[in-house]
Each structure stands twice: as C-alpha cells, then as structure tokens.
Amino acid sequence: MVEYPIKQIVDILNKKESVTEHVMDVEVVELYQELEVYYRSALDKVETKLLIIDRELSSNSHQGRKNMIHQLQKRIKRFKSVVNKLNSKQLNFSKDTIINNIHDFAGLRVICSYSDDIYTLIDSLSHHPDIKILKIKNYLEQPKPSGYRSVHVLIEVPVYFLKETKQMTVEIQFRTIAMDFWASLEHSLRYKNDWKSPELSEKLQTIADNINDLENDMLTIRKAIDRLDD
Ligand code: GTP
Ligand code: MG
Fold first, then answer.
1. Alpha carbon 202 to its chain's center
2. What is the pTM of this model?
3. CA distances to 126, 128, 131, 193 from 156, in Å
4. Gene3D superfamilies recorded for this chain (predicted)?
5. In the chain, which ranges are E strands?
6. CB of 38 closer than 6 A to ligand 1?
7. What are the pLDDT digits (tens) for 145-193?
8. What is the number of other CB atoms lying within 10 angstroms of the CB of residue 43?
C-alpha cells in the first residue's frame, strides 16, 4: 500500500512548494478521485434507501406522517479537509489510512420535520439487511456543550461495482429543521473568525435551548392533531 507523507501534502496545499513539481501530488489527487467514485456511489445508495423509506411511510396505506424528510443534503469531504484531518491524526495519506480513519468521507444530512421522525427513519434504516449500524452518537439525548442537537449515525453499506463489492462507510447526520437553522448559523458564526467569548457562547447555547422549546411546542400541537385524525 503506497503511503504519501502528510506533511509534504500539507506544505503543497499551503503553497510552500510548487504543485507542478511533484509527481506525488498527481498521484494523491488520483487516489482521492478513485475514492470519490466509491463514496459518491455509497451516498447515492443510502440516499435512495432513505427516500424510499420516507415515501412508503408517507403513503396512505401506512397512514404515516407526511414529509418526515424535509431536506436531504449529501457531500463528499473535500480533498483539503481529508488532508487536514489525516494531519491532525498524525497519519500519512493512503487508501488504507483514509478508509480506516476518515469515517465522514461520505456524509448525508437528513433534515427532518420533528425529532420523532429522526428515530422512525433510523429504526427503518437499521432493519435493512444490508445496512450495518457501526455507531450512533445521540446529541438529542445528550446535547453538545455548544447547544448542538442531532443524531449522527455511522453505517456500513455494500456497493456493487464492476469488479467487486465494497463495504462503504457513510456518516448520516439527522437534525430537525429547527436545529438546522441554529447549526447552520452557529457554524458560520464560529468559523468566520476564531473568536472565543464565553458570553457569546452562552447566548448561542440559550438560543439553542429556546429553539428546542419551540420545536417541542410544535411537536405537541402536531401530536394533538394526529390524535384528532385517529
Ligand atoms: P469530526 O472529527 O469533526 O468529525 O468530529 P467527531 O468525530 O467528534 O464528530 P462529531 O460527532 O462531533 O460531529 C462533527 C460534525 O457534527 C461537524 O462536522 C458538524 O457538522 C457537526 N457538529 C458537531 N458539533 C457541532 C456544533 O457545536 N455546532 C455545529 N454547527 N455543528 C456541529
Ligand atoms: Mg465529522
């Protein structure tokens, strides 16, 4: 297995060295692109599974809830982010180090209407015989100190390619619409510049709690309406 020294790639990315002089960086980019094909395919497969679950549960025969999935986003980790993450873990760049250590190379974000939809979707997905749940981080039950709430699920799914079947790891982040509003804005505020203010952090935390209260109020109303329909 070919390994490329991570420091050198970081230097190239930081433009401390000329990119064109290196045979190595052509090879690393090609390796990244090869992995991208596999991970994109895994994302497509998992996206389809989730859309099918949502469609079936929304159908009349199930008398389920409409539009549990408000929005679905997918992304492949950018080359630079892969390099930075390997560097922070003091690992060199290779197919093995990426596959074994970068679990969010392929990421799906499922934005749900209500928090109970998140559990319904995860439960349905976990019943697919080809899906293996590797890890669940439940930040709904135990929110992050920042105020962040969501459920992160790491799964393994087989993808059938021309010559082989590959077991691919995909990270799915399940959030509610309300939490997506908070997380998107908080993310852009935090990463805009590297501020560290306990007061502002506390304010953001309080806003997260308030948004969660509003969401629960909406859920209470929805449940009352659900009962009227029964
Ligand atoms: P990473 O190495 O960043 O993946 O951290 P980790 O392995 O500890 O994963 P974690 O479960 O913390 O999830 C990281 C991802 O969750 C981030 O890339 C964000 O998308 C999201 N996330 C986690 N915490 C926060 C937060 O406080 N605010 C926002 N806006 N997003 C968060
Ligand atoms: Mg991550």
1. 25
2. 0.93
3. 11, 11, 6, 35
4. Beta Polymerase, domain 2, Nucleotidyltransferase
5. 69-76, 106-112, 132-138, 151-160, 165-176
6. no
7. 999 999 999 999 999 999 999 999 999 999 999 999 999 999 999 887 7
8. 22
Is residue 186 lining ligand 1, measured as CB closer than 6 Å?
A: yes
The atom of ligand 1 lying closest to the CA of 187 is 30
Residue whose CA is at the smallest distance from ligand 1 atom 31: 183
Residue nearest to atom 13 of ligand 1 (CA): 152
ipTM for the predicted complex comes to 0.95
Q: How far apart are CA 132 and CA 125, in angstroms?
A: 9
Answer whether 104 contacts ligand 1 (Cβ < 6 A).
yes
Ligand 2 centroid distance, CA of 106 (Å): 10
Cα(59) to centroid(ligand 2), Å = 33
CA distances from 105 to 121, 149, 165 (A): 22, 21, 18
Q: How far apart are the first and last CA of the chain?
A: 60
Rounded distance between C-alpha atoms, residue 32 and residue 77, angstroms = 10
